[in-house]
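Q: Could you fold this chain for me?
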Amino acid sequence: MTTRRKFLKTGPIAALGLAGLTLGAEAAVAPGAMSGMTMNHSFPNAEVITHTGQKLRFYDDLVKDKVVMINFMTIGNESNYPVTARLAKVADLLGNKLGRDVFMVSVTREPVKDTQTDLQNFAAKFGSRLGWTFVRTDIPILDDLEQRIYHRHDVATTDSDLLQNPTHHKQSTSRSVDIVFYGNSRVGLWATFPIDILAEDAARRISWVIPNSIQVGELRRAGPRQMNTHGYSSDNRQA
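A: Sure. Below is the predicted structure, expressed as structure tokens.
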């Protein structure tokens, strides 16, 4: 909980005086869900390479106008920290919403060690799912990305460790808890959840920020039919 409080640097919506904010058809936010969320967030638009070999811009191609989940991972640490395996359970629950209503971006903390081919094979291990993109980028860009969207939780990795293993990014080991950053970029609504929560809980939180369908056609009155001089009128009731 302390980590999450530190991470939400811009303060909850209630603190901004926006507790009654109406998002209309842009986002379907469950009652009470906004208390742990923040509005707006800046993302680096640096180049990244996906597990399929595409060169994309992080913000323009992977985040902009999307409901997205972003997390950090390493292939080598998956056995000790099964981050991706846990997210795969969330992906199972999202079903066909993944790749249509919500997207997942997993960023490796070891961009030298985890090559594009390694990431492709790793993605295949979890089903190579549509809407789930694994990416790698240069370490300076990775550092910038983590600084902006992720609260660092270094515990034991030191500079001397890096001298012995320069391909190992400073944050890749000794984490007791990791988090997933998620939100609706179109309305600028963001929050986090710990990676070790129940998959059902994670999927439910994601559903809070997935847009509702927009009603088309003439609006009709909802509720029971109204009485008139001729009895009930079905013209005044929404089906």
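A (continued): Confidence is low (pLDDT under 50) at residues 1-35, 152-176, 232-239.
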